[in-house]
Structure formats: structure tokens, C-alpha cells
């Protein structure tokens, strides 16, 4: 697996607040990478920053950024391990006992916030039963979770997992902590935010639309809206539309990302599309394997620059787990032999 190229912190969304009258949106600190981490691949830049849906209180920002950035280097560029994951927490953080995921009565004694935090930590650790507990309890958490630094850290780690069920758990908890129910009312709210003139609100909404689409809320419409935003003049909006499409993870989203990788005028957006095709987001291994022929074409397409050729090779390596030279003939020979 390869680490995905992070988005520079200098490119993060502005910290403008969303309307404070809507209690569903909580402040969110910056995030790290979106996909599984390893030691090769899309890894040439600064740490990612996530869009923020609301203004951070100074104390939340200090705690959240301190906790997250202290362990970000340990998470980016290396395979996930328990020791690296626990480095994201303060030194006095007590690891959650794996037995908790199998003890419903003990979980019932905890408040919903602590249930969510404990179970998501266990899910990232791949403890048996944690993902099932999240699935069965998440609807009951609606309106009872607050977005804090620990949920931010945990959901970032979940989206870095190589286990799709863990990624799904991260999405479920993240939506609930945002206060977004999986229904048409929340979707309409996000669609309105996505058309906002407030840059921070818009980029957050593009991300959250992907989360919502992945959970089956009018997914086809979500993909259509995100695809439309790939025509925005603003590079940042196009980049977050790419991330949203990757999260949606539908078959219809994949060719859109392929076209974006080929045609978008911004190298940042083209690279994020390549990352999404390769391993970021919520596509299945079968969906990713289906684009190998197109990536082979991109690897020596004379209309593309050398950097995009390189991203095509990296995507091929991520999808196939093969380490071949950046040579189109070698990759085509391997693919023909594989068939």
C-alpha cells in the first residue's frame, strides 16, 4: 500500500463559521491522510488539512491540533501499527480494553460520547466486535455526540485503515458527530452549503456529501452534484469534490475521477484524483482493478506530462501490489501475462 500525497496545510480551508443557528455542525480540527499509510507512493508534500465546518474555539484548536500533529508523522508514511496509533494520543491516554467491544452491559454504562470514542478506537485496532457495535449503536447516538479532538483523531485513523469496515465505522461516527442524520433533510442542508459563497462551508459540504453518499442517501444525486463541482473555477472546490467522489465509492464515480486525473488543469487536483483511484476513499478492490487498462494508457499518453505518467504508475502499483519499473512496456507485459 502507498501513502497518499497529503494536501498542504497552507492550502487548508479558511476558518469562517457556518451559521451558528444550525446546531448540527461542530468544529473540526485538521485531519491527516485519507487512505492507508505505507512507505512508498504518493508522498511528496506537506500534511493534509481537512475543511472545517465551523470556527474552532481556541482551546479546542490547541488541544486538537496538539494531539493530532504530535502523531501525524507516525501515521503518514508507515504501515499502521498499534504503537504508532497510540502515539496520536496524549501520554496519559489509557488504551481501551478489547473486551469492551464484546461487553454490551459495560458499554451501556458509558455515555454515548465515550461509547463512540472507545468503540472507534477498538475498530481502528481491529478488535473483534467493535465495528458491529458501532453499526448497532450509531443511530442511537444521533444528537448525543460532540465533535472533539479525540473523535477527529480516531476518524482520521479509521479512514487510514486498510479494512473497509473500519473506514465505514469512521464515516458513521463522523456523520453522527457532525449531527448529520442519514436522511433527505441533512442532504438538502449539505447541498445548500455546497453552493455557499463561504469557502470553508462549501469545501466542508463537498467532503460531507461524499460521506452521506457512501451511506446510501441519494447516492446517485450526490455523485452528480460532486461531478458538477469539478467544473468550478476554484481549484480548492474541485479538489474537495474529488475527495467526496472517492468517499461515495460508486462505480459511476470512478470514470469521473479518471477523466479528472487526465484533464484537470491543476496538478494538485489531478494527483488527488489519482490517489482516489488508487486507494483512497471507499472503492472496492474490484472497482480499482477495473481501471488498470486505462491507467496503462495514461502511463504513456503523450498528452499528459511526466508527473501524471508517474502518478499512473504509482496507482498501478497500489492497485496491483506489484513493484515494477515506471515503464509502460513492462506494465503492459505483466498485465497481458496476468490475463
| Class based on secondary structure composition and strand pairing | mainly alpha
Uncertain segments of ≥5 residues (pLDDT<50)? 1-41, 43-49, 52-83
* Biggest sheet descriptor: none
Query: What is the H/E order?
Result: HHHHHHHHHHHHHHHHH
Number of domains in the coordinates?
Answer: 2
Average pLDDT across residues? 80
Strand content bin:
under 5%
**Share of helix, binned:** 55-70%
Number of strands: 0
Number of helices: 17
Shape: globular
Q: Give the termini distance in whole angstroms.
A: 22 Å
Q: For the CA atoms, what is the radius of gyration? A: 19 Å
Protein model, in words:
The chain has 339 residues and is mainly alpha-helical. The protein has 2 domains: 1-179, no CATH class; 182-339, Leucine-rich Repeat Variant (Alpha Horseshoe). Helix content is 56%, strand content 0%. The protein is built from 17 helices and no strands. The chain is globular and about 60 Å long. Residues 1-41, 43-49 and 52-83 have low confidence and may be disordered.
Amino acid at each position: 500500500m502507498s501513502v497518499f500525497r497529503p494536501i498542504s496545510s497552507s492550502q487548508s480551508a479558511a476558518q469562517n463559521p457556518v451559521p451558528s443557528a444550525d446546531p448540527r455542525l461542530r468544529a473540526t480540527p485538521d485531519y491527516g491522510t485519507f487512505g492507508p499509510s505505507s512507505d512508498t507512493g504518493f508522498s511528496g508534500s506537506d500534511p493534509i488539512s481537512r475543511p472545517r465546518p465551523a470556527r474552532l474555539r481556541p482551546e479546542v484548536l490547541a488541544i486538537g491540533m496538539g494531539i493530532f500533529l504530535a502523531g501525524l508523522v507516525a501515521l503518514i508514511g508507515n504501515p499502521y501499527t498499534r504503537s504508532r496509533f497510540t502515539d496520536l494520543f496524549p501520554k496519559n491516554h489509557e488504551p481501551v480494553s478489547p473486551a469492551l467491544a464484546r461487553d454490551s452491559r459495560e458499554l451501556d454504562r458509558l455515555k454515548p460520547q465515550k461509547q463512540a470514542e472507545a468503540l472507534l478506537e477498538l475498530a481502528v485496532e481491529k478488535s473483534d466486535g467493535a465495528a458491529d457495535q458501532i453499526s448497532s449503536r450509531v443511530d442511537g447516538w444521533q444528537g448525543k455526540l460532540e465533535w472533539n479532538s479525540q473523535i477527529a483523531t480516531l476518524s482520521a485513523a479509521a479512514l487510514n485503515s486498510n479494512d473497509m469496515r473500519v473506514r465505514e465505522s469512521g464515516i458513521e461516527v463522523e456523520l453522527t458527530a457532525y449531527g448529520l442524520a442519514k436522511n433527505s433533510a441533512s442532504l438538502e442542508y449539505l447541498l445548500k452549503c455546497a453552493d455557499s459563497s463561504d469557502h470553508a462551508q462549501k469545501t466542508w459540504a463537498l467532503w460531507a456529501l461524499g460521506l452521506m453518499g457512501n451511506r446510501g442517501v441519494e447516492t446517485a444525486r450526490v455523485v452528480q452534484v460532486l461531478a458538477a463541482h469539478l467544473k468550478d473555477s476554484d481549484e480548492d472546490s474541485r479538489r474537495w469534490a474529488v475527495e467526496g467522489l472517492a468517499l461515495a465509492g460508486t462505480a459511476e464515480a470512478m470514470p469521473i475521477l479518471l477523466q479528472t486525473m487526465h484533464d484537470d488543469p491543476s496538478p494538485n487536483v489531478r494527483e488527488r484524483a489519482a490517489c482516489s483511484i488508487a486507494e483512497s476513499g471507499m472503492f472496492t478492490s474490484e472497482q480499482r482493478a477495473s481501471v488498470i487498462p486505462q491507467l496503462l494508457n495514461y502511463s504513456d499518453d503523450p498528452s499528459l506530462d511526466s508527473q501524471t505518467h508517474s502518478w499512473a504508475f504509482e496507482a498501478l502499483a497500489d492497485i496491483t501490489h506489484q513493484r515494477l519499473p515506471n515503464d509502460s512496456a513492462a506494465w503492459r507485459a505483466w498485465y497481458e501475462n496476468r490475463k
